[in-house]
Amino acid sequence: MDAMRDKVLKLAKEKNAIILAHYYQTPDIQEIADFKGDSLALAQYAAETDADIILFAGVHFMGETAKILNPKRKVLIPDMNAGCSLAESCPKEDFAKFKAQYPDHIVISYINCSAEIKTLSDVICTSGNAVQIVESYPKDQKIIFAPDKNLGRYINEVTGREMVLWDGSCEVHDILSSEKIMQMKVDNPDAILIAHPECPQPVLILADFVGSTTAMLNYTKNSDAKKFIVATETGILHQMQKDSPDKEFLIVPADESCSCNDCAYMKLNTMEKIYLALKNEKPEIILPEQIMKDAKAPLVRMLELST
Ligand code: 13P
Ligand code: SF4
């Protein structure tokens, strides 16, 4: 395994490639990354890099975002099948029909969507800046929010808006059960519950803190508490534990039969696939020119509003 890691690092250097990794990647991949982050930080980093190759250890829409924001770079992903249930829950034709029903609404889309959905959007957001992006519009602005109904409902609650929501969700966060969490709280009365806003409302109601991946990492790092129940994807625990070796983190399991809560798409990536992608310079993210152009405007708008 170490030999493979060394081969990856050597090849990346030879090819002037940078490796970006989302916090949901396995620890070995996080550890070789030149930069790791949540969706917002990764998009910001990808937009600025002058490396010849961006190897994106994440999922497909993240690779697309990197390509759209920095089209001169060759963008590789380790596995073309690393999709996202949330992005897939919003097909372009269906969304175009939905949008047509609300001609006086603007569209704010969560970055977890396809490049085609981005072309139909006025601005993109991530979980890290969603409230800020929505709040940048006047209170009476009519808004469609897509594709995550849980994040959209949460933003409606926080901002007092009534955005129209597309009915999509993340298959990892949407199945976290409030019953299981209540039992964990009973068993661990000293633990703080933190949750990602992609979780459904019954989970968020119970949470002491709701925030994006980076917000949760910062929260646990800075908190005086010693024990946390973590309602999001398992990969986050690696950085959490690194930041706070003296604290205890209990992941909310997806169901009774498993002790983890992994995103199957994120976990398709392996060290060996990263090596092969760098060696063969594929799978490569390639998008039609017009889609790149039309999807770029709402992404750039997000970056401008996030500074
Ligand atoms: P963030 O990285 O914005 O917290 O999003 C989590 C996620 O589900 C990424 O796919
Ligand atoms: Fe998509 Fe959910 Fe996996 Fe994130 S965790 S990539 S939103 S399926």
TrEMBL record:
GO terms classed as biological process: 'de novo' NAD+ biosynthetic process from L-aspartate
Subcellular location: Cytoplasm
EC number: 2.5.1.72
GO cellular component: cytosol
SUPFAM superfamilies: NadA-like
Catalyzed reaction equations: iminosuccinate + dihydroxyacetone phosphate = quinolinate + phosphate + 2 H2O + H(+)
GO molecular function: 4 iron, 4 sulfur cluster binding; metal ion binding; quinolinate synthetase A activity
Note accompanying the cofactor annotation: Binds 1 [4Fe-4S] cluster per subunit.
Cofactor(s) named in the record: [4Fe-4S] cluster
Sequence positions that bind [4Fe-4S] cluster: 84, 170, 263
Top-level taxon: Bacteria
Pathway(s) where this gene product acts: Cofactor biosynthesis; NAD(+) biosynthesis; quinolinate from iminoaspartate: step 1/1
Keywords, comma-separated and alphabetical: 4Fe-4S, Cytoplasm, Iron, Iron-sulfur, Metal-binding, Pyridine nucleotide biosynthesis, Transferase
Signal sequence bounds: none
Family recorded in the similarity comment: Belongs to the quinolinate synthase family. Type 2 subfamily.
Entries under HAMAP family matching the protein: NadA_type2
Function: Catalyzes the condensation of iminoaspartate with dihydroxyacetone phosphate to form quinolinate.
Designated name of the protein: Quinolinate synthase
Gene for this chain: nadA
